[in-house]
C-alpha cells in the first residue's frame, strides 16, 4: 500500500536535506582543497622541482612522514651534463623538515654507473643528494622548475621554460 502523499513529501524533503548537507563535503574534496605533492614539498622546505612534471597523486602519513608519490610511468632526463636522473612510477620514502630519507624509486647515473639516491638534505641554499658511498651538491636554484621527462630542465620545445605554474590538479605545467 502506498504511503499517503504527505508522508512521501516528508521523506523526499528529508532525503533532499541530507544530500544538501553532505554534497559540500564531496565538492570540497574534488575541488582541490587537498594540497598537491608539490605543495607538500614546499611545506617541508623543498623546491617543487625535485619531482618531475606530472605527479598524478601521493600518499602521506603525516605522523610518520612516510610518503609515496605516483607518476604516469618511468621518467628520465639528463642534468648538468654528466648526470642522468631516472624516476620509477612510484617513489617512496620519509619526509621531514629539510630531509628526505630511505628513498626508493630514484636513481642517478654518474659516468657509467647507476646509483640509488637514498637521501636528500636541504642545507641552506644547497640540496645534498646522497647515493650510497658518494654524494653531490646542487644549488636550490636548479630546482625552481619541475623537469619534464625526456628533456629535463631545458626543454627547447617549450617557449615558457622559465615559468612554473600549477594547474588545478597540482601538476607542474608550463
Concise summary:
The protein has two helices and eleven strands.
What is the tally of beta strands? 11
> Unreliable runs, pLDDT <50, ≥5 residues?
8-31, 158-171
Q: What is the C-alpha radius of gyration, as a whole number of Å?
A: 22 Å
Q: Tell me the distance between the termini.
A: 63 Å
Shape, principal axes of CA atoms: globular
Helix/strand-derived category reads alpha+beta
Q: What's the order of the H and E elements?
A: HHEEEEEEEEEEE
Which terms summarize this structure?
174 residues, alpha+beta, at5g01610, DUF538 DOMAIN, 2 domains, nine-stranded antiparallel sheet, two-stranded antiparallel ribbon, 2 helices, signal, At5g01610-like, DUF538
Structure description:
The chain has 174 residues and is an alpha+beta fold. The protein folds into two domains: 1-33; 37-173, at5g01610, DUF538 DOMAIN, CATH 2.30.240. 19% of the residues lie in helices and 40% in strands. The protein has two helices and eleven strands. The protein has helices at 5-30, 37-43; strands at residues 55-61, 66-71, 75-79, 83-96, 99-110, 113-116, 119-123, 126-131, 134-139, 165-166, 172-173. A hairpin with a 2-residue loop joins strand 7 (119-123) and strand 8. The longest helix is centred in the first third of the chain and has 26 residues, at 5-30. Residues 8-31 and 158-171 have low confidence and may be disordered.
How are the SSEs placed, and which strands pair?
Layout: H1 5-30, H2 37-43, E1 55-61, E2 66-71, E3 75-79, E4 83-96, E5 99-110, E6 113-116, E7 119-123, E8 126-131, E9 134-139, E10 165-166, E11 172-173
Antiparallel strand pairs: 1-2, 2-4, 3-4, 4-5, 5-6, 5-7, 7-8, 8-9, 10-11
Signal peptide: 1-32
Pfam families: DUF538
Keywords: Signal
Amino acid at each position: 500500500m502506498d504511503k499517503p502523499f504527505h508522508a512521501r513529501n516528508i521523506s523526499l524533503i528529508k532525503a533532499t536535506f541530507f544530500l544538501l548537507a553532505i554534497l559540500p563535503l564531496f565538492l570540497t574534496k574534488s575541488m582541490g582543497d587537498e594540497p598537491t605533492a608539490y605543495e607538500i614539498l614546499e611545506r617541508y622546505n623543498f623546491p617543487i622541482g625535485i619531482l618531475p612534471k606530472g605527479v598524478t597523486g601521493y600518499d602521506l602519513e603525516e605522523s610518520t612522514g612516510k610518503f609515496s608519490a605516483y607518476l604516469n610511468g618511468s621518467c628520465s632526463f639528463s642534468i648538468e651534463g654528466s648526470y642522468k636522473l631516472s624516476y620509477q612510477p612510484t617513489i617512496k620514502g620519509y619526509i621531514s623538515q629539510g630531509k628526505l630519507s630511505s628513498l626508493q624509486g630514484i636513481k642517478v647515473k654518474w659516468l657509467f654507473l647507476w646509483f640509488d639516491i637514498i637521501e636528500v638534505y636541504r642545507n641552506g641554499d644547497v640540496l645534498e643528494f646522497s647515493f650510497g658511498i658518494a654524494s653531490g651538491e646542487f644549488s636550490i636554484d636548479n630546482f625552481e622548475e619541475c623537469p619534464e621527462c625526456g628533456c629535463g630542465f631545458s626543454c627547447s620545445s617549450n617557449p615558457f621554460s622559465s615559468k612554473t605554474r600549477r594547474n588545478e590538479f597540482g601538476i607542474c605545467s608550463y
